[in-house]
Specification:
Blueprint lengths: L6 E2 L4 E6 L2 E6 L1 H7 L2 E5 L6 E2 L4 E7 L3 E5 L4 E6 L2 H4 L3 H4 L8 E4 L3 H6 L3 H10 L4
Antiparallel strand pairs: 1-2, 2-3, 3-9, 4-6, 5-8, 6-7, 8-9
């Protein structure tokens, strides 16, 4: 079940706004499609990300997939635990498997992303991929 407390991009990233910080990760749908995740390349702290632009890479036993910034903002923290345990994304994509946090983000961009029901409908219509 896709959590209703966050917003979703067409490229399968999620954003959860918590005060003045936006937490970003990938959806359960995305991690299932990728398979067992073996490596994650996250953006560096201090980097200014632009919505819709590539900001990292997720590698799995199946393929490497680009990671896109769902909203613009400055990277203030990355999930360093993923360096030694990238499988956290598979096991807990909405909690322990978060990717990075942004500050000075664009709240309007976040508001324009999909809610959970719209995302689920898109993912289902996508044939499960």
């Amino acid at each position: 079940m896709t959590p209703g407390d966050r917003k979703y991009s067409k490229s399968h990233e999620w954003v959860k706004i918590s005060g003045n910080v936006a937490v970003v990760g990938i959806t359960d749908h995305a991690q299932t499609a990728l398979g067992d995740i073996t490596f994650v390349e996250l953006p560096v702290i201090g980097k200014q990300l632009e919505a819709g632009k590539e900001c990292g890479v997720i590698e799995s036993v199946k393929a490497a997939s680009d990671l896109f910034a769902p909203i613009s903002g400055e990277v203030v923290e990355t999930n360093t635990a993923l360096g030694k345990a990238p499988e956290k994304i598979n096991k807990s994509p909405y909690e322990d498997g978060w990717l990075f946090k942004l500050k000075a983000f664009d709240a309007g961009q976040a508001a324009s992303l999909m809610g959970s029901s719209d995302y689920d409908a898109m993912a289902d219509a996508d044939g499960g991929h």
